[in-house]
Amino acid sequence: MNVGLIGIGTVGGGTYKVLTENFQEIFNKIGIEIKVTHVADKDVGLAEKSVDKSVKIVPDAFELIANKDVDLVVELIGGTSIAKDLVKSALTNGKHVVTANKALIATYGEELFQVADENKVVLAYEAAVAGGIPIIKALREGLAGNKIEWVAGIVNGTTNYILTEMKDNDLSFDTALKQAQELGFAEADPTFDIEGVDAAHKITIMASIAFGIPINFDAVFIEGINGLDQKDISYAEELGYRIKLLALAKLEERGVEVRVHPTLIPESRLVANVSGPMNAVLVKGNMVGPTLYYGAGAGAEPTASAVVADIIDIARQSQISNKPFIPSLGFMTNQIKEKEILSIDDINSEFYLRLSMKNQAGSLAKITKIFASHNISIDAMTQKVEHNQSIDPDIFLVTSKTKESIVNEIIEEIEAFSDNNHKIIKLRIEELK
User: Fold this and answer.
1) What is the domain range of residue 171?
2) 235-264 tens-digit pLDDT
């Protein structure tokens, strides 16, 4: 099987390394020689330094796609514009495609899977979610006998590194972000990571596979970590929780929740203890119960490992039949059906709230009275009085499980108090059990 690589950057170089250094290992497993024979990259000089002289290098990716000697195309340039055109062209030309492009799948997956089906080829995307962790295969194949109840993941290494540093070393968000950039864990423009967009792309894909629903990135609720204060990390720890940027998809009777936001998770949960740039995904099936998948969510070789696994799967399938036999999203196409994506206002959760009130008699009584008027109990409450009496004390509390819209009403009423001087911080809690 002749492979054409589009993009010879970090992951492209890693893919070439895995296929060449593990060539014999792969051959022993599938009985097919898989070789990179063509590379397309605008930086021809970089490509020449990155691959063997036997590999044909072209600056135009469409030229690679049109080449009859290429059996399978690997798209590793990212983005959703030219990448979409390249993948669609390759599929239309009857070539299998492997991609690590989560934005492409989350945005145009439905359309591209249809093109693949029409041309009896495979569009594979294991590396698009959680790097080297084989979570797509686990959801689509390993857990195929289960009805998936929920999927929850720490699927962005940049934000997990920042939150780890904020907790372990008492760093501010800005300092932790700068450190992540210096170490190469964060891009110069980290917007997609810290605002939760990257994680949202990934949970969009996992939700579709888990519940047999169409890919619908636009319906995902997204809230990043850029508004987090270090004190919330500390207060959460006092309550027995860790704060993580959690990507969550949950099947409810009323519909499906698909959301990304900073979340308090009990410190006793394994997923709460995933630190640094590592990723983890927790899946609960109705028969198997919770299962945890942990590993490197990014990097040249871990991501390339997932890319090559897809290539191997396609090579194995091609030996048996020309027709792909594993549905792209795990469900038969005619069984992928719309379910209502619930508004964030309609979710039920416990909540962590932090507020600052003037240190005067009656303030706490006013707060508890408002909660009681909404029939919501307070499970825990702590008041932090600073040595400097001129500073308004922090009050942080945990609510009983309730609807988000009700909590928002409570917040509005408290913020209307004359003895409240600050915006109330609200974070959701997930028990994950």
Assistant:
1) 135-296
2) 999 999 999 999 999 999 999 999 999 999
Query: Are residues 151 and 203 in contact, defined by beta-carbon separation less than 8 angstroms?
Result: yes
One-letter amino acid at 1 equals M
Whole-angstrom CA distances from 308 to 10, 297, 341 are 14, 15, 34
Whether 98 and 150 map to the same domain: the answer is no
Angle, CA of 254, 256 and 257, to the nearest 5° = 115
- pLDDT one-digit tens code per residue, 35-91: 999 999 999 999 999 999 999 999 999 999 999 999 999 999 999 989 999 999 999
Structural contact between residues 259 and 220, judged by C-beta atoms closer than 8 angstroms: yes
Label residue 416 left, alpha or beta by phi (over 0 means left) and psi (-120 to 50 means alpha).
alpha
Domain identity same for 108 and 153? no
Task: Give, in order, the Cα–Cα distances in Å from 355 to each of 238, 352, 381, 423.
Answer: 16, 10, 11, 7
- CATH number, residue 140: 3.30.360.10
126 lies in the same domain as 237? no
Is the whole model's pTM more than 0.90, yes or no?
yes
CA distance linking residue 98 with residue 38, whole number of Å:
15
Catalytic residues: 202
C-alpha pair distances (Å), 394 with each of 157, 259, 286: 31, 28, 41
Domain total for the chain?
3
Q: Tokens 């359309």 correspond to what residue?
A: 111
